[in-house]
Each structure stands twice: as C-alpha cells, then as structure tokens.
Amino acid sequence: MPYVLIAPFFILFAIFGLFPLIFNGVVALRTWRLDDPAQDGWAGLANFERLLTDEDFGNALYNTFGIFLLSTVPQLLLALCVAFLLNRRLRGQTWFRVSMLLPYITPLTASTLVFLVVFGRDTGVANWVLSVVGVDAIDWRAGKLQSWVAIATMVNWKWIGYNALLYLSAMQTIPRDIYEASALDGATAWKQLWRITVPMILPVVIFTVVLSTIGGLQLFTEPMLLDSNPASASGGSNGEWQTIAQLIYKVGWKNLNLGYAAAMSWALFLIIVVVAVVNTVLTNRLGGGKR
Amino acid sequence: MRLHRSGWVVATALVAVGALTLAGCKGGGSDEPSKPGGAVELKIAFWGDFGLDELKAKYEAANPNVKIVLNSGEYNAQHEDLQKKLIAGSGAPDIAAIDEGFIVSFRSQADKFVNLLDKGASKYQDKYLGWKWKQSLSADGKTQIGLGTDVGGLAMCYRTDLFKAAGLPVERDKVSALWPTWDDFIKTGQDYTAKSKKKFVDNGTNLFNPILGQQPVGFYDESETLKMDGGPKAAFDLTLKAVGAGLSANLPAFSPEWNAGFVKGDFAVLACPAWMQGHIKNTAPDTAGKWDVAAIPGGGGNWGGSFLTVPKQSKNADEAYKLLEWLIQPEQQIEIFKKVGNLPSQPALYKDPAIADFKNPFFSNAPVGQIFSKTAEGLTPQYLGKKNGPTRVAVENVINSVQAGTTKPADAWAQALKEADKASKA
C-alpha cells in the first residue's frame, strides 16, 4: 500500500528524470549530427576526449566558476545577515519576510529583462548612478569582469531572500536560553552569530550550499538574455560570459551536434557532483561540525 | 500504517491523477487527423511579418472546413523549434516557413519533409527565379522541400530629414549618385558625421552582411569549403574601415536598442532588403514619410528571403499543400508585397502593374516595386553553406567586439579567421 502512494512520483521520475539521464549517456557515446544524418554510430569516448582540449569548454568552465563564486559566496553571507536581522523582534515582521521572497517568485525572464534596462550601455540606470558618483560609464557587455558582476547581481537579487528565509526558519528553532547564557558570559552579537547560530543551523547551511552549487553551475537564463543577440548563445561577442549550460545549448541547437552536447552535459553533471561534495565538506569544516 | 477504505480511495485517485498527468503530457496541436467532413486545423509557423493576417480570413471564407492558426515567433527560435520538433517526430506545424539562412541545413534532412514534387509542384518550377527553386531542392534533386515566398533584393534606405539637416542631397537619384562604391559610401558617411555629429549606420554587421551578399562567393563554395580570403575578407575590410571612421552607432541588429534607434534617429542609413520595409514601418510608425530608398553601393545583392514547407509529420499534408499552393499564387504574393513589402520570387510578377507601378507612401512614395524587382533580377545568388549561419554569427561577433573596443582592429581579421574556422568545424 505505501508503494502505491509513492508510486506517482517514482513513475514520473522514471519517465522524466531517469530515462532522459540514461538516454543522454547513450547519446554522449555516439555520433549524432542533425545536419548530417549519415554520420551515425558508436563514438566511444571520442566526444569526451574532444572536451579535454576544447578551448570553448575551458572558457565556459572558467566563466561558470567565476560567476558562481561572485554570486554564491556573497549571496549566502548576505542571506545569513538578513536572516539574523529578521530574527529580531521587528514591527511589520510578516511584511518584511514576505517581501524578501518576492524576487524569488518573480518570473526569471521578467526580472532579467528589467535588469537589462539597468545594465544598458547608453541609457542604463547603473551607469547613471555611476556617473552621479563620478565614475565613467561601463559597457557591461564588453569584458569578463563587468559582465560577471552584472550576471551575479541578477542571481543574488533572486536568491538572497529565499536563502534568508531558509536560514530564518532554522534560527527560529534555536532555544533562546543558549543566547541568554552566552550573553551573561559577555558574548557580542557577532560572536553569537558565528559561535552559536551558524553551528546550530549547519544542516540548513549545507543544504543551501548544495542547492546553490547545483543552480549556480547550471546558470543559463541570465547569461542568455544579457546577450544583445540572445539567439546566438555565444555569451558576449567574445564568449566573455558564456556558461557551460549556454555552450551545451549552442553545440546542440546551433551547431546541431547532439552527441557532443550530450557529452558536455554529462561532464557538467560530474563536475557538479564533485563540487557539491567538496563544498559540503568545506562548509562542515567551517561550521565546526563533525558530520 | 493501516489504511481505511477511504485511504484506498485516495490512493486510487492519486494514481489516476498521475496517469492523467502523463496522458496530458502528450503534445496537442496538429497530431489529430481531422475526421472527414470535420474542420481541418492548419498551423503556420513563421517570424516577423509574412502579411498573412488578412489572407487567413480570405482563405477561411473560401474554405469553410479549414481553420488556420498563425504562430509568429522570433526568427532563430522558430527555426530551432522546427528542428527540435522534426527530431521529436511530432509537434511541428503543418506549414513551416524557413529562411534562406537555414534552408541548406533543412534540405539535407529532406526525408523529414513532404516532397512537394509528389504533390505536383513541378509545374511551378519555371515561374520561379532559377536559383530560388534550387535553394530548397535536396542535393540529389529528387526532393523539393519548399516553395519560395520572397527574395531579399538589397537597396539602401535613408532618412531624408537627417540628410537634409546635414546638408546632403535628399533626391533619390542624387543620393544614389553619392555612392557608386562602398568607399564613396564611407566618404559620404564621414561627411554626414562631421556635419551632424551623429552616427551614420546602425551597426558594422549590417554593412558586412550586404557587402558579403554582393560577392560572387560567400563564406563557403559549392564544395562546402570555407573561403575566408575572397568575399569575407573584402566585406570585413570595408566594414572595419567604416567602423574605424566612427560611422557606426553600434546598435546590435534586431535588439531593443536597435529598434529604439529607428525611433530616435540614431542612424541615417540602413541596408534594406525588401522585407526590411515592413520592419521599419512596424517599429517606427511615426517616421512615416521621412524615409526614402536609394540604390545600394556596389550593385545587387541578396539578404534573406523565405520558403514555405510542409513537414512530413503533418496529419493534413494534402490540405496544407493546398493552402501553401494558394499562398504562392500571384494574387496573394502581390497582396503581401503591397501590405508588407516582401518581394515575390516569381519574376513574371515584376512586370505586373500592381508591382511595377507600386509606390510606398511610408518611403516618400518611392517606386519600391521597380527598385526592388531590379535588385532581384540583377542577382547572381551566392551559395550559402550548411554552416553559413554559425559562421556568420562568429564573424559578426568579432565585428561587435571591435566596436566595443575589446578587440584591436589590427588583430580583428586573425580573430575572425580563427572563429570562422572553429564555427565551420563545430
């Protein structure tokens, strides 16, 4: 009977999760070109060998990790601070908490298009603010660093509130008397945050780190829409911010090389697994856990 | 946990919901064959403005059993979507428009399309420009996957008000006389920017594409070998010269900034294939009467132009072909030309008074019928290789990075060679 109850999920997962994953693995080991149906057959590991020396893949990997660091680290730290602030007794508590979640429920495409107005070259809000401060206008699409910052900003805006709420819910479960005891011992708020709060909500921190890793390394929509020619999927005129997900899309649907694109997505899958494990271990160490 | 009877009911309901969800995931659309005597639904997928809105009503009135569904989308997205649906084996429209930039890669998948020769399309072969008919023919010449709608013969659209303000002539013929060659065109541009302190062209890539279109050989020759030293080099050098002279407003083609540029008058000229008329009119309706059309420097050339195809998976292939056949008849093609500006690819129509005498009020009553049909007739079309699309994007990206200042003009050609080579092997 319990099997019947959980069956719907597993049936759906097998059809829409497991099967595509395995099928993708098979495609990765084959030659499959849409523009040349005659080229068909078993390729073995040829697609993966090609990956190792592919400049574009290296560049995309570099961009993906660069944007990932610029977005995940500040994002989680800020989320922690926001949660810490929201955890106090505030007026209009619910209003603050709900408004934190608004960016998360905004459709991604809509919010990205608004950000494009902010990061416009000639008439952008960001450049106007900079000019008020006395800094020269920046062409946000003309270099690695500035385009990464633009994309990381969009990612952070969307996810800070979501992660803050997760942290907040974990913080609510920490007994008050621990804080009272530490306050008697003369602990500052800062010390309390790092010595009591973070270790006590460590499982949730690890959860958000893993989730951000999976999401961050699969970044697609923001870089795609930042391009002045969204259809080219080239991530800037010189691949300044092309992420792996974009490159997979380009190889599959622009170059019509499905075998190679499948190999890339499997490589991405393996990279995500490795990075997520490393991040979990690191977070555990930093938080002083023993799991 | 022991379940009560109601628990079973819930469980069964859950499973039923799951099964229904799965059933609901089956693609809808034109999968269902229509019952005889019932209504036939025909889906047409295209981009931009094919001028079909009024024709749809006309055809439905004449054929009460047919309902036409128009699906307009973004240019690249529509082609990619068609490609995906062809692989998936379902979900493709009954009639899919394909642009010349993509036709080679689709005609090499001729087995996925209805062979229009089997439907009797061979009787139209003589009516078409020879090269247009060949473009959508499979390599072995046995399968015709589509019938041509329009061609993109090139002219040069310019803003009379901006020309006048900069002290340049505004008369069509005098403007054409300003630039017999592209070098003269660049000189005129320098003249304009010096006097008006404004930019002359919208973007370097929109110089590169028409100049490349005028070369006898483009990126690829007939044997699918990348030929960068001929046409592409000539077009690239001229483009960089114009960019170096500070003529470009650096507005990426078809971006929102570019569209805003039409309204704001950020540029004074634009290489204009016939179909661009519709785009300008739809984008900047307030500039009516401020545009005119002159000859393009360096002779005739082509940019774009489309075909209508019937994917094999269509359950209503016969009805779809009937509609396609109707759409390419002279009356409809002339109707589309008048409405949107897309020039038909059947040369006999150029002599038809409806086209020969047509003047476009939006473009200061320029005799666009004559101007554009001349460009189409004097055309030696270029072979567009299978990899033409990605190669073009790769080289356009280099031009854009020169404009953004991230690539030095001196290194640009080496960069373009490298990127084009990569694209050709991708």
Automatic annotation (TrEMBL), chain B:
PROSITE patterns: PROKAR_LIPOPROTEIN. Gene3D superfamilies: Periplasmic binding protein-like II. Transmembrane segments: none annotated. It comes from the Bacteria. Pfam families: SBP_bac_1 (PF01547). It comes from Catellatospora chokoriensis. This is ABC transporter substrate-binding protein. InterPro entries: Bact_solute-bd_prot1, SBP. The gene is cebE_4.
